Amino acid sequence: QVQLVESGGGLVQPGGSLRLSCAASGFTFSSYFMHWYRQAPGKERELVATITTAGSGTNYLNSVKGRFTISRDNAKNTVYLQMNSLKPEDTAVYYCSVVRRSTYYWGQGTQVTVSS
Questions:
Q1: What's the pLDDT score for residue 109?
Q2: C-beta neighbour count of 97 within 10 angstroms
């Protein structure tokens, strides 16, 4: 079955950096676009970044453009989110996701807290 396991979250000061990882299994990873979403308390989940199958194409939420970078390693079945210049408003639970056969799959999420 599809499994997505995120890691790398934590507490960081404004202006700091974190790198999130998502290890995938149970499907042919290299055949699917991968996504990072986030959900802040009291807010709806929002799409942060998407990467195409080979990694040649990416798309970002406007508020993270120039600060976040999504990448993938198809040999390791892993997708990453490098987050730089973090702001308090980036505080949220971050989820990786894949859509397979019209079904959304999610990991358990990893908490990112940006605070001084």
A1: 97
A2: 19
